[in-house]
């Protein structure tokens, strides 16, 4: 009986060995077999990750090349808001470059309409397949950003397609408030800041930033009227700093760039065409870091 069991056991072992040998020959590289649905999910997850990385890189590249000061400022934000900040700035760059990239006003208005439709679709959870749109949708979902500020930026950029000089300082202030201040409101929301003093400061800083940007662009677009430095606006914005929560300060880091430009233009007797003003200050990143460490603007 024992010998019979031993013989059967030996035969069984031999059959198992032959089976495994045949399996290795037929499926030499098989480690595990996945169901089709599992493979599909794995591919979808991988593709989604790659696409997300591509979208983020696109926003980083466009902001770094077209809004370097904003790019450096975004790097100093808390990690939770950094990616959303770059998405918002990429959105702003896309709108800002429409006017200079089209030969006909009609084409520019069509692009503005595209962004209006895009914002509406983002808030319906159906963003178009476009890197900035996808990143903007991610930021909206994460921080519950206000749609009104985005639409206000688009509408003001759309009106600016008229390509005419600002009639007075008040008109330039209104344009700056609707574009730059609206962007700052969105940055504050991405930081989780809801504070009336921070909003008030953002309004004045946005106006000052828009005016300084207009001055910096004067050599490039000399057909625009020369506007005098708004020193009163800058001083008024700074007066609110003592009432602003510390969590809001990162949104206002770019005031370092404004202050640097105002000081440099003053040194050349307010000549906005001076060649030295066309060069980037290499110390700006260090100044931004120091200001972010001190939590002041």
UniProtKB/TrEMBL annotation:
<dbReference type="GO" id="GO:0016117">
    <property type="term" value="P:carotenoid biosynthetic process"/>
</dbReference>
<keyword id="KW-0125">Carotenoid biosynthesis</keyword>
<dbReference type="Pfam" id="PF00494">
    <property type="entry name" value="SQS_PSY"/>
</dbReference>
<dbReference type="InterPro" id="IPR002060">
    <property type="entry name" value="Squ/phyt_synthse"/>
</dbReference>
<comment type="similarity">
    <text>Belongs to the NDUFAF6 family.</text>
</comment>
<dbReference type="GO" id="GO:0005743">
    <property type="term" value="C:mitochondrial inner membrane"/>
</dbReference>
<keyword id="KW-0999">Mitochondrion inner membrane</keyword>
<protein>
    <recommendedName>
        <fullName>NADH dehydrogenase (ubiquinone) complex I, assembly factor 6</fullName>
        <ecNumber>2.5.1.32</ecNumber>
    </recommendedName>
</protein>
<keyword id="KW-0809">Transit peptide</keyword>
<dbReference type="InterPro" id="IPR008949">
    <property type="entry name" value="Isoprenoid_synthase_dom_sf"/>
</dbReference>
<keyword id="KW-0472">Membrane</keyword>
<keyword id="KW-0496">Mitochondrion</keyword>
<comment type="function">
    <text>Involved in the assembly of mitochondrial NADH:ubiquinone oxidoreductase complex (complex I) at early stages. May play a role in the biogenesis of complex I subunit MT-ND1.</text>
</comment>
């Amino acid at each position: 009986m024992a010998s019979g069991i031993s013989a059967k056991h030996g035969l069984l072992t031999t059959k198992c060995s032959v089976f495994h040998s045949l399996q290795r020959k037929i499926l030499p590289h098989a480690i595990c077999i996945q169901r089709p649905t599992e493979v599909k999910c794995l591919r979808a997850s991988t593709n989604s990750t790659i696409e997300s990385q591509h979208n983020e890189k696109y926003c980083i590249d466009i902001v770094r090349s077209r809004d370097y000061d904003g790019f450096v400022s975004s790097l100093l934000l808390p990690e939770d808001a950094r990616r959303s900040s770059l998405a918002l700035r990429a959105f702003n760059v896309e709108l800002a470059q429409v006017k200079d990239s089209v030969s006909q006003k009609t084409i520019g208005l069509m692009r503005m309409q595209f962004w209006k439709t895009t914002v509406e679709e983002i808030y319906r959870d159906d963003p178009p397949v476009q890197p900035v749109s996808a990143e903007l949708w991610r930021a909206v979902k994460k921080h519950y950003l206000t749609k009104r500020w985005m639409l206000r930026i688009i509408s003001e950029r759309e009106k600016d397609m008229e390509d005419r000089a600002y009639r007075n300082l008040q008109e330039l202030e209104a344009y700056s408030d609707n574009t730059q201040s609206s962007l700052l409101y969105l940055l504050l929301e991405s930081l989780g800041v809801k504070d009336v003093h921070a909003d008030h400061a953002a309004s004045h800083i946005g106006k000052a930033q828009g005016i300084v940007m207009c001055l910096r662009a004067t050599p490039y677009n000399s057909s625009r009227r020369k506007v005098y430095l708004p020193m009163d606006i800058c001083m008024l914005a700074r007066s609110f700093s003592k009432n602003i929560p510390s969590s809001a300060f990162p949104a206002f880091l770019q005031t370092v760039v404004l202050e640097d430009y105002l000081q440099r233009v003053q040194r050349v007797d307010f000549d906005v065409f001076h060649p030295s003003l066309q060069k980037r200050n290499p110390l700006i990143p260090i100044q931004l870091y120091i200001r972010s460490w001190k939590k002041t603007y």
